[in-house]
Structures are given as C-alpha cells and as structure tokens.
Specification:
The complex is a heterodimer. Chain A is α+β, with helices and mostly antiparallel strands. Chain A is built from 13 helices and 18 strands. Chain A has three domains: about 250 residues, 2-Layer Sandwich (Beta-Lactamase), CATH 3.30.450; about 80 residues, Helix Hairpins (Orthogonal Bundle), CATH 1.10.287; about 170 residues, 2-Layer Sandwich (Heat Shock Protein 90), CATH 3.30.565. Helices cover about 50% and strands about 20% of the residues of chain A. In chain A, helix 2 runs antiparallel to helix 9, helix 9 packs antiparallel against helix 10 and helix 11 packs parallel to helix 12. Chain A is rod-shaped. By secondary structure, chain B is α/β, with parallel strands linked by helices. Chain B has a single domain, classed as Rossmann fold (3-Layer(aba) Sandwich), CATH 3.40.50. Classes of the chains: A alpha+beta, B alpha/beta.
Chain lengths: ~625, ~130
C-alpha cells in the first residue's frame, strides 16, 4: 500500500502525461467512430436532399419547357386566328410581313427555325426560316403524322421527333386554321423546333461528365442527350442506345415508367460511372408530349458532399482540438497545483516535524533542567545549611555563656577559635551565595560582562599577591611561582570576573596541593592574518594530587567536587566566564603523574590597535 | 551518670561547634571527621548515642550506620544532616538499608541549641529498640 502510494506519488507527472495522451487518443477514436457513423448518415441525408432538389429542379425545368411551348402554341394560335388567315390569305406580302414580326417575336423567347403555313391540302404555302435553314415551299406535308392528327382532331398537335433532309432532329407544333364563324378547316400554321438548340437552353446537352439533360418523345426517341450527340434521333429502346447503356435494367425501368407519365429517380451505373437520374414528363394542357431526365454523375454529388463534410470535419476537429487543449491545460494546471500543494504539505509537515522535534528536545531539556534544578536545590540546601550550623551554634553558645550563665572565665584561645570559626563560616556562606547567584545568572542567561581594556599581567599579579598572603596565614608549604609576561597582554574583558577565574583555579589547585609549587605562565600566540587567532594562553600548573580520572571528563560541570568542602560550582562558573569572553578552558593531569595543569585562553587586543593616550596604560 | 555521645561529621567546624554545645549541656562527647577512622576506633556498648552526618566522603552515614549496628546492635543512632529530610535521596538509601527509621531519629542542620538538646534527650529517653 505504502509502496504503491509512493510509486504514484513519484510518477504523478508521467501519469498525468499518459492520462492526457490516453484522453486524446480515446477522444479521437470515439470521434472517428462517431464520425464514420454520422458521416454515412450525413452522406445519405445530403444525397437524399440532393436527389429531392434534383427532382424539384427537373420538375421546374419541365414546367419551364412546358410554358415556353405553350407560349409558342398561343402565338401560333394567334396567327391562325389572325384576320388575314381567317380571310383565307395563306401567303403574300401581308402574310410575310406579319410572319416576319411573329418569327422574331417567337425567337426572342425560344428557339424555332421554321414557321410555315400549309393549306387545307397540306401543301406549304408560306414558310419563314432562320438563316441557313432550307425552305420548302409547295411541298406536301400530308405524310407527317402530326399534320394528319391536327387535321383530324382540329386541335394543336406536338409532334414526335423527326429528322429532316439536313439531318437535324426536330419536333414540330401544328395549329389548325379553323374559320371562326363556319368552323371549316382552312389549313395549318406550324413551327419546327431543332431539338438540340431548343433544349440546350434548359441544360447541358454536351458534356457527359457533368450533369446533363436527356429529352425524349412519346415513342422514346431521344431529342437531346448530354451523354452523346450520336444518340440524338435514336430510340432509347433501340439497339444502338441500349448498347450504349449496356442494357441497364434500372435505367430501362425508369424510362419505361417515365414514358407512361410516371416521374421518378434512379441510381445506376452502366459502366460510365454512377449516375443519379431524375425523370419528369413535360405536360402541355394535361397531356405528356415530351419527357425530361436530368442525369448527374454521383461523383459530383459526392464531391460536393465531401466538401460539406470536410468543412464539418474541420469544424469538429477544431472543436475537439480546442476541448483537448483546454483539458490538457486544465490537467497541467491541476498537476502543477497538485505539485505546489504537495510541496506545501511537505514543507508544512517538515516544519511540523521540526517543531515537534524542537518541542521534544525542549521537553527533554526541561526534564534535564528540572532534574538539575532539583539536584541544585538539594546540593545548595546542604551547602548553605552547613556553614549556618556553626554560625548559629557558636553565636548561641557564646550568648548562653556570656549572657545567660555570665561566664567570664572563657579562655582567650577558645574565644579566638570561636570567632575565627564564625568568620570563616560567614565567609564560606558569602562565597557560596555569590556562586549560587552567578550560576542562577548564567542559567537564566542574564550573565553580563563589564568589559574594559587592561593588562592581564596586572590582574594575575594581584591575585597571586592575595594568595601568597593566604598561604602565609595557613602556614602552607606551597609556593606560587609567577613572572609577569615581558609584553603587556591587553584584553578587552571583565576585570572582576577574570580575577574570580584565576582565584577559583588557584583555590582549586591549593585545595589539592599540600606542598610543592603552583606555577603560572602566560603565552601569547599572534597571527597577523587572522585576528581571531590572537590570543593568550594562561597555564596554571600544580604539584598536587591531580584530578580524579572519574571526575576529569565532568570537571567543568556543576556539582562536581572531590573536596570535603564546596558545591562544585567554582569551575563551572570559571568555564562560563571564559566562554563568555570568547576563550576556552581545559585541564589535564601532568604527564609525570604529579599534579595537574589548567589552561585557559582569552582573545587579546593587538598592541597596534591600542590608543596610547589613555592614562591607564602609560 | 554522664551520657556519652559519639559525633561523626566530615566538617570540622560542625564537630567543633556541636561538641562544645553538647559538652556545655553536660554530655561527654567524642568526635570524628573521618568516618573510617571513627568506625575503626569504635567502642561497643560505650556510647549512649551516636550522631551521624549523612553526606560524607569515603563512607556515607547510612553505610556507617549499618557497620556500627553490626558491632553494636543496641546503641542508639541518630542522623544529623543538612540535606532536606526525607528527600528521594534519603528514601532511596533507607530502602537500600531495608529498614524504617523513625523520623525522630533525623535531626535537621542547622538547629538551635535548645531544640537540639530537646531532641537528643527525647531519643535517649526512648525505649530500647
């Protein structure tokens, strides 16, 4: 568990990156999967839309053609009903003039290359043609089916396709000239329409590779075909066209339905690429005369669809890209944030641990301090009470003797001894109180030095003089040997405290030395490079008992004493004073086995730095 | 009959003071500053009371007590000490001794003469252990 957590913790950056990659990959896979499904749906739907549009446009073209043909019919009917023709005038200048006007009027709207007038025996009496078209005056048109039909029904008739001598496929419209009063058939006004130029107005009949138009008549004769010019005039069901369409059954079926007046559409491929074909009959006055098909290579549809899809895809991609970028940025921010939080937590935890450790340490220190405090109180109590006993005891004894018992015969010597003991113990008590106060100051960290600049030689000399007096008074056999240093030893120190230090060390040496010497020497070490190394070493060597090996490592700690008297505070205070001056203190037993030596150092002030005009040092 | 007291304390100023006080109050007092020396020169069935300091170098009061009891099971021994009475230190030493000692047998330093004499008299008048 722990291991796993550490693992994830350490690898969180990699995990973050991997998750981003996985999210990207899965997003894209999902996207592509969805895309494929929807693409097909979209394709189908767009294709269906396209097909519907094409059906509509086919319908529209069919109506357009129908309306143009109706217009033509109404113009021809206008001619047939004109007063000139009603009067039986079927040729001549006046007819020509009128026909010229009508011909140009018609050709403004549509494409007609011949308008003719035939008499009641179907003989062409007048004909106006467009430039380059042959004129056929006086020829008999009775062999034309539409002429016969017009004559028989006395109704306007649109013809099927036919080819003239010029091999141009045409359709014709024949309008009967019927006497408006008698109802007698007087002849026919007709128009011939070259199918290819006529139907090219409504669509492409040239290029098989794009959307094109196919128009046929009731029999299936092709009047205009975008697929191939050679097919014009051929019957759809004939061998030639069927070979061209490879007998495609779908197209066959579609066309058969169309010729029966049923509009429709089909998708098929007869070997020249897939096509969408929509078919609509062209109705004129409720009757289908011609049939139109619009054929579109589906590749053009699909390319349009693909364009649309491509745009859609692009939009989707940029959308997904944007989302992924946003998610990635979010993840990066989260990872960053997480790492910041982790660091913060680590930092705080460390701080907490640190502070816990400090508290534990402080607690430990407190315990130690508490124990030491108790020990201190015990020792201090003992040491303070001990000298009080002779002071109280002897002073009460004296009081009893002199005041209560009125004894005046007390020996002079006894009295002297009493008083000496009293004074000695009072001093001992005083020394003890001072030491305890010093220790208290040191331990409550309010120990302060009153520093001044002085020559250490003087201080040592003064202490030595005092001790020589003490030794003389005690009749001790110890001799202090001290020769002041030739150089002045300037220290920036607390004179009283240093006196205390030297006194304590000498006192200690004297306590353990019954006879022999206490030798004091000073040595100055100077290094110009580093002021810190400018120091004096004071060496106090005695020929006493030496320091107990059990005591030696703890010599400068509190309450360590081997003497019958003393709290063991003296050397502790000495060490603290020396350290407060920036010096060091240590002690060792002499190598010859006799006595011990104390060393302490103090930083000294370089002679060159001392202002000589001070009176103290002159 | 003059009561005989043996006083042992490592502090000469204490033995000097107490010896004079006790003698002034009619006791006969022998005193030692060195517990070993005191033990070596101990005379059984001679003293009415032994007064022992507790904190002494070489041999402390409790050890001295044990040794003296071996020589003289009947002698009255009391402790005369500057350390706080019945501190952990003393309790520990008593436990080591395997013995309970009546608190009347502990005399606290420093003490006024009057009180000291009363205490000593009280101990001497106690029934033999």
């Amino acid at each position: 568990m722990r291991y796993d957590r550490d693992f994830f913790f350490k690898k969180r950056k990699e995990i973050g990156i991997i998750s981003v990659v996985v999210i990207i990959i899965s997003s894209f896979s999902l996207f592509f999967y969805q895309q494929n499904i929807t693409e097909q749906n979209v394709k189908n739907s767009i294709f269906a839309q396209y097909k519907d549009r094409q059906i509509e446009s086919t319908q529209a073209i069919s109506e357009h053609i129908s309306s143009d043909l109706k217009l033509l019919k109404s113009i021809l009917e206008g001619i047939a009903d004109s007063s000139l023709l009603q009067q039986g005038l079927l040729y001549g200048d006046r007819i020509d003039k009128m026909m010229q006007e009508k011909f140009s009027e018609i050709n403004n709207v549509t494409k007609v290359d011949t308008i003719f007038i035939a008499d009641k025996d179907d003989i062409v009496s007048y004909e106006i043609v467009s430039e380059g078209t042959r004129r056929f005056i006086n020829i008999d048109l009775s062999f034309r089916e539409y002429i016969q039909e017009t004559k028989n029904t006395l109704r306007s008739t649109f013809s099927d396709g036919f080819k003239g001598i010029d091999n141009i496929e045409r359709i014709a419209l024949a309008v009967p000239i019927v006497n408006s009063s008698s109802g007698e058939f007087m002849g026919i006004v007709g128009a011939k329409i070259p199918t290819e130029s006529f139907f090219s107005i409504y669509g492409n009949i040239q290029d098989i590779n794009s959307q094109f138009l196919v128009v046929s008549d009731k029999k299936g004769t092709l009047l205009a075909v975008g697929a191939d010019k050679t097919l014009v005039g051929k019957n759809f069901f004939g061998e030639f066209v069927q070979n061209f369409t490879n007998h495609n059954p779908i197209l066959m079926n579609l066309t058969q339905n169309l010729l029966q007046g049923i509009p429709g559409y089909a998708i098929y491929d007869y070997g020249r690429g897939e096509r969408l074909t929509t078919s609509v009959p062209i109705f004129i006055q409720g009757k289908p005369f011609y049939f139109i098909q619009i054929v579109t290579p589906t590749t053009t549809i699909y390319s349009e669809i693909n364009n649309v899809l491509f745009e859609e895809k692009l939009t989707m991609f940029s959308l997904i890209g944007g989302i992924i970028a946003a998610i990635t940025a979010l993840i990066i921010v989260l990872i960053k944030w997480n790492s910041i939080l982790n660091n913060e937590v680590k930092k705080r935890t460390k701080e907490l641990q640190e502070s816990n450790r400090e508290i534990a340490l402080a607690n430990e220190e407190l315990k130690v301090h508490d124990k030491m405090q108790k020990e201190f109180i015990n020792v201090a109590a003992h040491e303070l009470r001990t000298p009080i006993m002779p002071i109280i005891g002897l002073s009460e004894l004296l009081y009893n003797k002199f005041v209560n018992k009125n004894e005046n015969n007390l020996k002079q010597e006894t009295l002297k001894e009493y008083l000496q003991t009293l004074v000695r113990n009072a001093y001992r008590l005083q020394k003890l109180v001072e030491d305890i106060l010093d220790v208290t100051k040191i331990e409550s960290r309010i120990f302060r030095l009153n520093t001044e600049l002085f020559d250490l030689n003087e201080v040592i000399s003064n202490v030595v003089t005092d001790f020589e007096n003490i030794i003389k008074n005690k009749n001790s056999k110890v001799q202090i040997l001290y020769k002041p240093n030739r150089n002045k030893i300037f220290v920036n120190a607390d004179k009283t405290r240093l006196t205390q230090v030297i006194s304590n060390i000498l006192d200690n040496s004297l306590k353990f030395t019954d006879e022999g010497f206490i030798i004091i020497t000073t040595r100055i070490t100077t290094k110009e490079k580093d002021d810190k190394d400018n120091k004096v070493i004071v060496i106090i060597k005695d020929t006493g008992l030496g320091i107990d090996n059990e005591i030696l490592p703890r010599l400068f700690t509190k309450f360590v004493t081997k003497s019958n008297q003393g709290t063991g505070l003296g050397l502790f205070i000495v060490k603290k004073i020396i350290e407060a001056h920036g010096g060091e203190i240590w002690a060792q037993n002499n190598s010859n086995g006799i006595g011990s030596t104390f060393y302490f150092t103090l930083p000294i002030v370089k002679t060159s730095e001392i202002v000589i005009d001070s009176d103290n040092f002159l | 009959m003059t009561k005989r007291i043996l006083l042992i304390d490592d502090e000469p100023d204490i033995t000097f003071t107490i010896k004079d006080i006790l003698e002034d109050n009619g006791f006969q007092v022998d005193s030692f500053n060195d517990p070993i020396l005191a033990l070596n020169s101990y005379k059984s069935n001679f003293y009415d009371l032994v007064i022992l300091d507790i904190k002494m170098p070489k041999m402390d009061g409790f050890e001295l007590y044990t040794k003296m009891r071996e020589n003289d099971p009947k002698v009255k021994i009391c402790f005369f000490t500057a350390i706080a009475m019945f501190t952990e230190e003393i309790k520990k030493s008593l436990r080591a001794l395997g013995k309970t000692i009546d608190k009347d047998y502990f005399i606290q330093k420093p003490i006024r003469i009057e009180v000291l004499i009363k205490k000593i008299t009280l101990i001497m008048n106690k029934n033999k252990e």
